[in-house]
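Need a sequence for this fold. Nothing fancy.
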């Protein structure tokens, strides 16, 4: 009885978070259930009623009708390109201000906080004007720069605080062994920081993949649309034909698949990176 009472708070917390997780994931399961129904069955049954005859026709229609491979390629170009820009900038800035003990460290971190907490509406119009001035309006690759800079601000704040606790003794030992600055970064700093780097990279990739406002503003052409814009356009009947809700649900599930794959492949690194940041 004493053991049961001692473990009750932990069990209550687990049950509470389990219920919250199910509530948070319920829209996904509702969309998945709707995507497996025919339009007629969807209109005649409730949203909670399971599909009677499971069909993947809605996935085929959304894949072909929305030219999904093209939309996925556009999203990958933007997401991966912005991710590379963010991680390269953030790593070297964090190294300089934290491990290098730069005197402007507090100012740089405060600037990063202001940048990534600022609403996108505040700088969307200036970015729009710049894209017009440099004749890059409607170009998929242009989005890499603003998203990369915004992501770099978040990554610098995250990595900068972790690198401030980096063991200096290891750097001094590497220097005594004759390692150059580049060798120290490649062989010492990056391997030890890999869980945190992967955590930041995963978060930035998902944020870039789901980016909506800037892509809607800067990519007006149908051929340059990303996955979220294509799904939203399908939802309002702005694409290939007036949509049926099961087709919209199928497109939404397809659009979320890359994020699920990324998290499934790197979930251990994500957990290690978050735990590492918490323990430090």
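Here you go.
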């Amino acid at each position: 009885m004493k053991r049961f009472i001692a473990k009750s708070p932990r069990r209550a917390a687990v049950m509470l978070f389990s219920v919250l997780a199910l509530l948070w994931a319920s829209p996904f399961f509702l969309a998945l259930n709707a995507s497996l129904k025919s339009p007629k069955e969807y209109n005649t049954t409730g949203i909670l009623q399971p599909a009677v005859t499971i069909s993947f026709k809605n996935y085929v229609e959304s894949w072909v009708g929305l030219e999904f491979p093209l939309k996925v390629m556009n999203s990958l170009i933007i997401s991966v390109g912005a991710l590379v820009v963010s991680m390269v900038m953030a790593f070297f800035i964090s190294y300089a201000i934290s491990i290098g003990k730069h005197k402007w460290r507090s100012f740089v971190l405060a600037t990063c906080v202001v940048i990534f907490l600022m609403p996108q509406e505040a700088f969307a119009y200036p970015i729009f004007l710049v894209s017009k001035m440099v004749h890059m309006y409607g170009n998929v690759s242009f989005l890499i720069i603003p998203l990369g800079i915004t992501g770099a601000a978040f990554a610098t704040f995250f990595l900068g605080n972790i690198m401030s606790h980096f063991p200096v003794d290891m750097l001094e030992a590497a220097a005594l062994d004759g390692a150059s600055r580049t060798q120290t970064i490649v062989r010492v700093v990056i391997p030890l920081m890999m869980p945190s780097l992967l955590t930041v990279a995963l978060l930035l990739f998902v944020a870039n993949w789901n980016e909506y406002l800037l892509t809607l503003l800067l990519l007006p052409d149908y051929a340059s649309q990303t996955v979220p814009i294509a799904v939203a356009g399908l939802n309002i009947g702005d694409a290939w034909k007036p949509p049926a809700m099961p087709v919209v649900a199928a497109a939404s599930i397809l659009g979320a698949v890359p994020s699920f794959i990324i998290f499934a492949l790197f979930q251990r690194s994500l957990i290690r990176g978050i735990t590492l940041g918490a323990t430090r």
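For context: The mean pLDDT is 83.
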